[in-house]
Request: fold
Amino acid sequence: MMMAEASTRTRSLPATVLLVEDNRLDVDLTEDAFRTVWPLTQLHAVFTGEEALLFLERGTDDGALPDLILLDLKLPGMSGQEVLRRVKGSRQWSRIPILIFSSSDHTEDRAGSYDGGANGYLVKPRTFQGFLDVVRSIGEFWLAWNARPPRV
Reply:
């Protein structure tokens, strides 16, 4: 009973997630999964690394930074690794948790991501149920239970 109460209570927490993903199908699956599992979460999708950095410079409609970034590695133009380096190298943005959300499970991609400051590395699931499961887990830890870092 205690767990159910906590789970219900945490779902009311508003959160903002920035999804950096160039594959429209993966964007749609992730958006659908968040709407299903975490309906109060604001998910902002951008398709390139350059758009991600512009979003961070602007912030959301009210100027806030995202609480979490889901970042694909294989992006047109600026790579996800470069976005990771720039965000983690910025005093203003370095505390935003970044989860790499990639279809690659290559050792060098994982190593480079953690070396660049990623907070986690998730391999994209192949089914909608898998997306639901991953999004549920992301939200439970990063949006509901994790104490968010103070802003700089």
Observations:
- The chain has one domain: 21-137.
- Residues 1-12 have pLDDT under 50 and may be disordered.
- Residues 128-145 form the longest helix (18 residues).
